[in-house]
């Protein structure tokens, strides 16, 4: 069964091909406090996506917190060029994909009771009852010229497990993506060159 894919990409981001997900599509990025934006962009499933969904990718499901270490020599700092989401209802999970220009940095995933902006500490009203914070170390979500590569707006895929997400931080080599969930969830991570994906199931 084919999976629906939704993509949110900032200004200047380049959509990358990967074996587990199809191509992305561009959307404007904004500055200032996060606002809500429904995730409406869709792309047709490729055979690779359909195959991955039909086979229900294997791997160990984990509880958080978890940490993965990848030593990265900087500069240049790896850039998060896009964030994409996909739904796999036949396999019982939703997927968040980070596309990166450069090597994969270290990352951690933990749960949180609320979401705040990393720089200001201001609360972010992210839809959901539970939250995951995905933090990348030695990474940035802006170009060398300072232009954002990811929208600051709250994104609303509205999937069963992955209800919402937002860029909660991009400061001093640390990028934080917050994910809104209906309840606590198990996660599974996977990597390929230039891509990190996080599967989420209730």
Properties at a glance:
202 residues; mainly beta; 6-stranded antiparallel β-sheet; 5-stranded antiparallel β-sheet; 1 helix; 42% strand; globular
Strand content: 35-45%
Mean pLDDT value: 80
3D shape: globular
**Counted beta strands:** 15
Spell out the helices and strands N to C.
EEEHEEEEEEEEEEEE
Q: What is the percent of helical residues?
A: under 10%
| Main sheet summary | 6 strands, antiparallel
Task: Explain what the structure shows.
- Strand 8 and strand 9 form a beta hairpin.
- The model is unreliable at 1-33 and 35-54 (pLDDT under 50).
- It contains one helix and 15 strands, in the order E-E-E-H-E-E-E-E-E-E-E-E-E-E-E-E.
- The protein has one domain (5-201).
- By secondary structure, it is mainly β.
- The strands form four sheets. Strands 3-1-5-6-15-14 form a six-stranded antiparallel β-sheet, with no helix packed on it.
